[in-house]
Amino acid sequence: MDLNELKQRLGPFCEARYSGAMTVTEVVTMPGHAGFAYGFRVLHEAGEDAWFIRLPPPNVNWVGTADVLRQVEVLNALDDTTVPHCSVRWSGDDLQWFDCPYFVVPWLQGDVMRIGPDDWGSTLTAGQLQAFGRQAMQALAQVHQIDVAKVPYLGEPVAMQDDVTRWDKFYERAAEPQRLAGVPELRQRLLAQMPADAPVGIFHGDFQTANLFASNDAQLLALIDWELTGIGASLNDVGWICTFSDPLAWDAANPRPMFLDPDALIGFYEEAVGGPVPDLNWYRALAAYKFAIISGFNLSLHRRGKRVDETWETTALSTTPLIERGLALLPV
Q: Cβ–Cβ contacts within 10 Å for residue 130, how many?
């Protein structure tokens, strides 16, 4: 949505929610959301408030990841916990305001955990990173323990077998299929070694440092970006962040910044849940499998001009290492 149009729409929206005189100021597009998340400020008689509004992507059906009310469901459930998060102030599917569903939360001041050589996180001490990792994994453990009866809008659990096979269609459309030559073998091992009695609960869906919002002194302020949330095998989140922190899963010639090593992250999670967690190599292998296919598919979208993003040219160099790492984690 054009910023001028959004500002015009936010005026009546805020007038209906504030008493007395008010003015909407500083409407900006927020980074990392493809132009459908915005920050805005409201100047009113008692001071100034800063808000973050999330809208669905333009020109899509409001289902799945584009159904912003799924995020509202989880954020509301988190209000009954100590998990750092953004509580929803306003939300709805009434189209009179923005012609689409929406939700509004406080606009936090800080940044996601950035750990590249030139990023703010690179200045943190080892102790600060360890403390932040413990906070993140403790918060994740609490998310996984929420009663799923509190989030009926999320629907039925994702079956574990479906969580392996649903990537087939993306694999078939990936660029440079030779880089994904090991996919059929890893797929077979994932299906053959599927854990029994996997814990089922709310999963975040993209639990990694880019979605851990921090204060300037490296305190966890919020778990953010819940568009991939759902009900299913909750340990997928542990496997996901471990894969994103595993140097053996990524192209050695183009190393990605690593947070904490997987053993440390697993240790913090097990500390939070009170004991060992089985089968984590399976969830790590599944995460590597998924992201390898996602990378190949997004590279195809980029090269075909469907969703241009030059970063996939580099990220996709890790498709083979990701698959090889998955295979190593699930030996026959």
A: 14
Q: From CA 326, how far away is CA 291, in angstroms rounded?
A: 11
Confidence class of residue 32 from pLDDT cuts 50, 70 and 90? low
Q: Which candidate, 248, 238, 308, places its Cα nearest to that of 273?
A: 238
Nearest-5° Cα angle at 157, 331 to 299: 60
User: CA geometry: angle at 318 spanning 316 and 319, to 5°?
Assistant: 70
Distance CA 254, CA 269 (A): 29
User: CA-CA distances (angstroms) from residue 156 to 4, 56, 148, 236?
Assistant: 40, 22, 10, 16
Q: Across-strand partners of 50?
A: 41
Domains in the chain (CATH in brackets) are 3-106 (3.30.200.20), 111-329 (3.90.1200.10)
> Quick check: helix, strand or coil at residue 119?
coil
Cβ–Cβ under 8 Å, residues 248 and 221: no
Render pLDDT for 163-189 as a digit per residue (tens, 0 to 9): 999 999 999 999 999 999 999 999 999
The pairs formed by 155-163 with CB atoms below 8 angstroms and a separation of 24 or more are: 155/230, 155/231, 156/231, 157/200, 157/230, 157/231, 157/232, 158/230, 158/231, 158/232, 158/233, 159/232, 160/194, 160/195, 160/198, 160/232, 160/233, 161/191, 161/194, 163/232, 163/233, 163/236, 163/286
**Residue 65 or residue 42, greater confidence:** 42
Cα–Cα distance between 224 and 151 in angstroms, integer?
17
DSSP 8-class letter at 254 = S
pTM over 0.85: yes
Q: What is the pLDDT of residues 92-150, one digit of tens each?
A: 999 999 999 999 999 999 999 999 889 999 999 999 999 999 999 999 999 999 999 99
Give the sign of the dihedral formed by CA 263, CA 265, CA 266, CA 267.
positive
What are the CA-CA distances from residue 234 to residues 76, 157, 210 (Å)? 19, 10, 19
